[in-house]
Amino acid sequence: MVTNTRATLLERLRDGANALAWDEFFGHYWPTIYGFARYCGCSEHTGEEIVQDVMLAVFQHRDVYQYDPARGRFRDWLGAVVRNKVAEHRRRPANRLRGAGGGNSDERAPDRAADQPGADAAWEAAFEGSLLLALLDVVRRESDARVYLAFELVTLQGLSGGEAGQLTGLTRNAVYKANKRVIDRLKDLGAPYRKEGRIADQIKQVLEQRPSAAVERSVTMLVQQTMVSR
Q: Who contacts 126 (Cβ-Cβ below 8 Å, separation ≥6)?
């Protein structure tokens, strides 16, 4: 089901006038792009610029790349675009000077090449996280609001059944049943993507690693301005 959801989204992206599809694409993948840029050693500002550049590249090439599993994985195509943009930023003279040891360095994390073996694993993990969050979004939309809230409070925030019951208006037993219902649905949808451990724990870890709200606001404004100008 998730594969179909992604493929449908990618097909909708071929229509540049479909703002909803672009919002959805941006919402799912910007943390993946940004996180990988930061893994490679880019500053917050450069990471935001790379998200901007990648989104523009995907927009411009939406008619060149048509999602077809037989031709390869979309994550590999997107990963190649991100790597190229990271490399382009590093080739810029100003960035090379800052990375050479002078003051006001643009690199806040250990400098890692975007094409080294460890980077492949980092990209896979980041992309996997985006799929897990897409699963979470699907389940949230199809669940009753109080059922999903019970899951969020118990599993994602660590509240007790009694505490969650006070906030949701459900009995303690109903809270645990609601929580289990959401987790079972996540497991059902996420079976093709599970590796090791419980899927709810994996989602919680991805949420904890998500960039801050301030970064999200900054990236969103930057990309919106770029798309409007195009």
A: 31, 32, 35, 36, 39
CB 151 within 8 A of CB 142: no
Phi, psi of 42 (to 5 degrees): -75, 150
Name the pTM for this structure. Answer: 0.79
Contact of 1 with 135, CB cutoff 8 Å: no
Q: Nearest CA to 207 among 142, 120, 135, 121?
A: 135
Which amino acid is present at 62? Answer: R
DSSP-assigned states of every residue in 187-225? HHHHGGG--SS-HHHHHHHHHHHSPPHHHHHHHHHHHHH
C-alpha–C-alpha distance, residues 149 and 163, integer Å: 12
Residue reference for tokens 């899951």: 151
Summarised one tens digit per residue, pLDDT across range 38-68 is 999 899 999 999 999 999 988 887 766 666 7
For residue 18, count other CB atoms closer than 10 A to its CB: 15
Contact 38, 122 (CB under 8 A): no
Strand, helix or coil for residue 110: coil
pLDDT-derived band at 209 (thresholds 50, 70, 90) equals confident
* DSSP annotation of 143: S
User: Tokens representing 155?
Assistant: 């599993």
